[in-house]
Design goal:
By secondary structure, the protein is mainly beta. It is 3% helix and 39% strand. The structure holds FE2/S2 (inorganic) cluster.
């Protein structure tokens, strides 16, 4: 496990998101006021870039494209959201945000039925 310093705790304003590159892996850091989350920078619904479509209000990240949403402290899916948010391990230490990034987290975007997997 390798912890990497991403930025200072004050570098991402409350209720905003900011994209970082961690050794070639794109990561979106979210400051939701009571804490931080580090997630892949695309919406698990239809790959919308969350740095543009993501809105953080009262601890909830909402993708403004089709309103999928996740509660950021518990990661509970809200409303009609169908996929969980993947997150990187994160900790705060001495005023810095550190991430443990071992490999890039990806979402599956296959819309087809399971039976069609045979043809891939
Ligand atoms: S692309 Fe984000 S909710 Fe549809």
């Amino acid at each position: 496990m390798t912890w990497k310093r991403i930025c200072g705790t004050g570098d991402v304003a409350e209720n905003t998101v900011k994209k970082f590159d961690v050794e070639g892996i794109p990561i979106l850091l979210i400051n939701y006021g009571a804490g931080y989350r580090a997630v892949p920078p695309i919406c698990p619904h239809m790959e919308e870039p969350l740095e543009e479509s993501g809105i953080v209000v009262r601890c909830i990240l909402t993708c403004s494209k089709h309103l999928w949403a996740w509660k950021l402290d518990t990661l509970e899916m809200q409303g009609d959201t169908e996929k969980p948010l993947k997150t990187y391990e994160l900790k705060q230490e001495d005023g810095a945000i550190l991430l443990n990034v071992e490999e890039e987290l990806m979402y599956e975007f296959d819309e087809e039925d399971e039976e069609d997997d045979f043809f891939k």
